[in-house]
Amino acid sequence: MTETVGAGAAAGKKSKAAGGLSVQRVFTTEGQHPYDQVTWEQRDVVMTNWRDGSVNFEQRGVEFPEFWSVNATNIVTSKYFRGAVGSPQRERSLKQLIDRVVKTYVKAARDHGYFATPQDLEIFEHELTWMLLHQVFSFNSPVWFNVGTASKQQVSACFILAVDDTMESILNWYREEGLIFKGGSGAGLNLSRIRSSKELLTSGGTASGPVSFMRGADASAGTIKSGGATRRAAKMVVLDVDHPDIEEFVQTKAREEEKIKVLRDAGFDMDLSGADISSVQYQNANNSVRVSDEFMQAVENGTDFGLRARLTGEVIDRTDAKKLFRTIAQAAWECADPGIQYDGTINDWHTCPESGRITASNPCSEYMHLDNSSCNLASLNLLKFVTPEGTFDAPLFARAVEFVITAMDISICFADFPTEPIADTTRKFRQLGIGYANLGALLMALGHAYDSDGGRALAAAITSLMTGVSYRRSAEMAQAVGAYEGYARNAEAHQRVMRKHAAANELVRTYHSNDAAVRALATEEWKKGIDIGTKHGWRNAQASVLAPTGTIGFMMDCDTTGIEPDFSLVKFKKLVGGGSMQIVNQTVPRALTALGYQDEQVEAIVEYVAQHGHVVDAPGLRPEHYEVFDCAVGERSIAPMGHVRMMAAVQPFLSGAISKTVNMPESATVEEVEEIYFQGWKLGLKALAIYRDNCKVGQPLSTAKKEKAADAAEPEKVVEYRPVRKRLPKKRPSQTVSFTVGGAEGYLTAGSYPDDGLGEIFVKLGKQGSTLAGVMDAFSMSISVGLQHGIPLEFYVSKFSNLRFEPAGMTDDPDIRIATSVMDYLFRRLALDYLPYEKRSQLGILSADERSAEVEANYGGTPNVDIEALRSTVDSSPEPHAEEQEHPHREAQTTTELMELRLGKAADAPLCMTCGTKMRPAGSCYACEGCGATSGCS
């Protein structure tokens, strides 16, 4: 199904007459290849299963730039390198991966006459290579999987299918959807053409209705999964609000949620990964109701609304619009489905209405266009465009967008597609989906609150500039290689939508010189694009969307995905050799500096955040700046309407829509869900979905719920035992030990109960007032309170000994010659001083004399043996890369499990089928922070 002679060849001939595109260098230097400007290093990638520790991927000696994080290295190596592992054909360098993709694009650009001269083509190749190498942007995952390989050259992640009111079409829907799932992608479709269960068949019987056919498709999706890699298939099902079966559709998943509760209470395993969850239906799709302006006006006015027959269009039933809208909100409150798609807004911004209405979306709701079409995505890393002065570099961003959107269009020239109808539509309309990631981190770094007028103004201006530049370059490509085939029929509508975008740009109210400068450049770009496009047309029917940026977000080392705010102010750094440590999000000090705080103030505030996880009452931080540090979860989490307002700010500047779920607290009411959905229509969104915390039963970490249910079945009274704190007396014996670990000096003071037994510790490490000293004080307090509540010392010793992080190395303690960290030393020292020999022997902690005696007893006299140097834990784990030591923040990850433990609530997310880690939300889909797998668009 690869494009051969036809549109591509014709475009190539036309380009020579038009002269092709001319480009200039932005990031690169003439005479120097991008690869020669960075330092490369060899790394070993070994990835283990989170649950059982087994190795699920290993490739040693891979080559990456020194500034790439270990996490990005692991994900790219395991996900995107092609060739059998262990074979000579296996890719082993990032250079090979980038070259495989970029050179394919360059060849297609040459074959189809995109550029005016060979020099322009070379500049295009070098600029694209530099931006990928430096994580400025990334194509979506199918590009990395397929381009330049022997496989079909599929470049699209998003698909929309079509189904008609015939059994042949319905069975073909099952087939096409299965093929797309098998390839690891997702699809969406609208079932509203299928007759309702209230209408008659030509044979005289009653139709089954679309909900009945959803069962078969759901079973197929649950069997095939998504590329065999995730538990949930990526799938969207849409039904129009005027369909006679709309109420049954709305309640399908809510009723199944009731079934889950009954089965769970009966003892069945109804977790997302449980053995019995497969008996529940409709769980493999996101459901959305397509509401019309007519319906929403009926809701607003409190009037009836007509439900229409599918074949004749006549009203066959009437319903109370307010009551139906409440039913939709009630179902979403109960189980997070259905979402809402606003049909009037969607089709008012449609560039190709003469070729058909937009009836559906992809699974994550960001791609919306004609049936049987596809969209390939790419996203830019916004933090790469922040200047040292703390401003957003709009001209540089515009130049980057030019290269990215050009490359995206070129890919359609050589792309393959899963079905012939999708191939035909995509080649005729050339839909693209450029977007961005790291918006939340960008706003915080520049001192903007996510839910603020200033934050929304900057986000709107950046989005307008991105789409304006994309359409201007699309018009230039149309001048060089021809407009999309469907343009002539839709020219008037396309031009109207371009003017709507430009008019919306003029309505953006700016608040700072930064967003004013970005909007001013966007205004110029829209004017240029409309002038060129009016004469020559546009190369692409659509240009931009905001995707969830799952795996590619990890590839670019992004702190936040898509349009999302920052998740939390603290993240967890995975340590080499196991374990983790909590560190403060590095965007926090950048934001404090941007807000004008001095270095000493920044250090004190960061230390406070490290201890408390939020900024409320942080020393020296002005209360009016608290909002800058509001995040998706935790203390001062962003209100649901804050998310909706941000979506509304950027929606007028997107060809498609936004992949995002608005999180609501567990205490949210049905009325609040109604208000969110109603305001989404008022504010001009195209789609909206909500998730109320803990609304789903079938989710991980339900052990406590099972135990509670089991206890409830017992008639006898349940006695709850709680630990009681045993305080130390005013006077208590103590001892102080000075120590040195890897050159770092400190003091350990340990206080005991008079009847023996450790009761408190104090650790002095680092300068007074430093972050490290504060963290150690807080740590000492936590351990002391735990000891006084009865937590055994041996428990702490087993958890903290053998932790590996800097400082580490030689000590001045004859009993503990080498320590893998300060924690390792402290708790081994405490064990030696306060635990009996039997318990220490079980833990493998003995004094030098005891070890010498043990060796002599077992092997005879062996004088001058350095017992501590023989400890297997010292050398068994590989040393961390220099990058980990110099840039510890690059390994910061807010894993879902750790955040669940911190917040005390379970996340409705599946377990990764590759590494066992619980995935986290990424837009409307899910992404695994352990290995980069996703359940939807990436």
UniProtKB/TrEMBL annotation:
Function statement: Catalyzes the reduction of ribonucleotides to deoxyribonucleotides. May function to provide a pool of deoxyribonucleotide precursors for DNA repair during oxygen limitation and/or for immediate growth after restoration of oxygen.
Lineage: Bacteria, Bacillati, Actinomycetota, Actinomycetes, Pseudonocardiales
InterPro entries in UniProt: RdRp_reductase_class-2, RNR_2_N, RNR_lg_C, RNR_NrdJ/NrdZ, TSCPD_dom
Record-linked CDD domains: RNR_II_dimer (cd02888)
Ribonucleotide reductase class II vitamin B12-dependent N-terminal domain boundaries: 45-135
Domain of life: Bacteria
GO-annotated molecular function: ribonucleoside-diphosphate reductase activity, thioredoxin disulfide as acceptor
Region named Disordered: 874-893
Presence of keyword rRNA-binding: no
Catalyzed reactions per annotation: a 2'-deoxyribonucleoside 5'-diphosphate + [thioredoxin]-disulfide + H2O = a ribonucleoside 5'-diphosphate + [thioredoxin]-dithiol
Cofactor: adenosylcob(III)alamin
Biased composition (Basic and acidic residues): 878-892
Residues covered by the TSCPD domain: 729-833
Record family assignment: Belongs to the ribonucleoside diphosphate reductase class-2 family.
Ribonucleotide reductase large subunit C-terminal domain boundaries: 156-691
EC number(s) stated in the UniProt entry for this protein: 1.17.4.1
Species assigned in the record: Amycolatopsis nalaikhensis
Protein name: Vitamin B12-dependent ribonucleotide reductase
Keywords linked to the UniProt accession: Cobalamin, Cobalt, Disulfide bond, DNA synthesis, Nucleotide-binding, Oxidoreductase
